[in-house]
Amino acid sequence: MQADILIGSPAEALVSNDSVILIIDDNPRSIKALSLLIRDFGQVIFATSGEAGIAMTMKTKPDLILLDVEMPGMNGYEVCRQLKGDVATRSSGIIIVTSHDSVEHEVAALEAGAADFITKPLNAPVVRARVKTQLLVKKQADELHRQAEQDGLTGIYNRRYFDSYFEQEWRRHQRQRSSLGLALVDVDHFKAYNDSYGHQQGDECLRCVALGLKAALRRPGEFVARYGGEEFAVVLPYTDDEELHRFGPWLCEQVRALKIPHGWSEASDFVSVSVGLVSCVAGKICSHTQMLGQADEALYQAKANGRDRAVIATKSSS
Ligand SMILES: [Mg+2]
């Protein structure tokens, strides 16, 4: 990255630095010419065949791909169709680069899923303008994606995110035959809190608890989502029962330590939570839905036992 060529329009500043642009072209000279034109927009990487380009997209998830059409083996249109047809790679924007300057080729590029089209010989201002536009489009799409996964009230992940990622994690752990942990967390006597302190204060309470739970996470891959109302879900990769025995009470402690006064709780003077936990090793529980059901039963038990506590689901019921 060269600081002296970072100066530009505000839009240029927006897409600089952190974007990753992949050039897929069989001709090293074309790669060099293209990368010289766009290197101030971000990190430029390259691949010299369609197959290598697909592999690199899987690995690096580039923001934008500049894709040559004329390549031996897989041509650019085929590469484009494959990348756009795979959920793992389709979020990268693609600009097709070709020496064929005809409407038919432009239509073929768009039909293959490309966002735009650049013709050779390269025209520097046109290349830069098109690349800049697509990087901005990608930034906006990423932002929308982030908002779609976020709970509006608490700012943590929402139920939609939980539903898709919990299942994904469950499948991954099944494949790897490793243990996945799950905690369902419910704010004790939250209805009484809302009724006595008002909804605004109730919302503030949920925000605090959400942040407290998020701060309680320690390991990569762990995440907390708002499961609904005053209920939260925590996904704990590579976690077994032994670790749940430590994690459950600790989670309760973290919420107690927030010291949010709750004059109408029978469980404590402060806002507290009940936690139901379960861990699952491949084959022990036959679906992620059952895992959720068991955590829910354990949560029910924690409430029945007097709240402000954690209960781990017993494996004999699986
Ligand atoms: Mg070529």
UniProtKB/TrEMBL annotation:
Positions where 4-aspartylphosphate occurs in the chain: D68
GO process terms (BP): cell adhesion involved in single-species biofilm formation; negative regulation of bacterial-type flagellum-dependent cell motility; phosphorelay signal transduction system
InterPro entries: CheY-like_superfamily, Diguanylate_Cyclase, GGDEF_dom, Nucleotide_cyclase, Rev_trsase/Diguanyl_cyclase, Sig_transdc_resp-reg_receiver
Keyword Phosphoprotein: yes
GO molecular function: diguanylate cyclase activity
Cofactor(s) demanded: Mg(2+)
E.C. designation(s): 2.7.7.65
Xref: PROSITE patterns: GGDEF (PS50887), RESPONSE_REGULATORY (PS50110)
Record field: catalytic activity: 2 GTP = 3',3'-c-di-GMP + 2 diphosphate
Signal peptide stretch: none
Top EC class for this record: transferase
All residue ranges annotated as the Response regulatory domain in the record: 20-135
Domain GGDEF per the UniProt entry, residue ranges: 178-315
GO cellular component: plasma membrane
UniProtKB keywords: Phosphoprotein
Superkingdom classification of source: Bacteria
Protein name per its UniProtKB record: diguanylate cyclase
Organism encoding this protein: Ketobacter alkanivorans
